[in-house]
Amino acid sequence: MSYTLATAAKATGLNRSTILRAIKSGQITGTKDQFGEWRVEPVELHRVYPAIAELSAGSDVPRQHAARNAAALEAEIEALISRAGKVLRQQLNEVRRGGDTDPRERHPWSRRRVG
Length: 115
Hints:
The protein is mainly alpha-helical.
């Protein structure tokens, strides 16, 4: 039974586009079925890309790598949320303070050149 791009991606933990690029570059052999959908034989796919089960059974390195990536992404997300919160608080304070001022004074980029 051959894989579709979606099932091949799930089996390897890769994106469908990665599998398709591998087919188009000749790294793995794929064929189109009568509906125009790409098919890849499991033996051909796993010759180049190991199955997820093989990666996790062989060692903890992929899991550790994924955990480090997840921790780094979480830290980056927290920093972005914090920065966005500061900017929003600053904007809110500006709006509260500037009630009846000319908006062009608060936002110099909105000034028009009169000439």
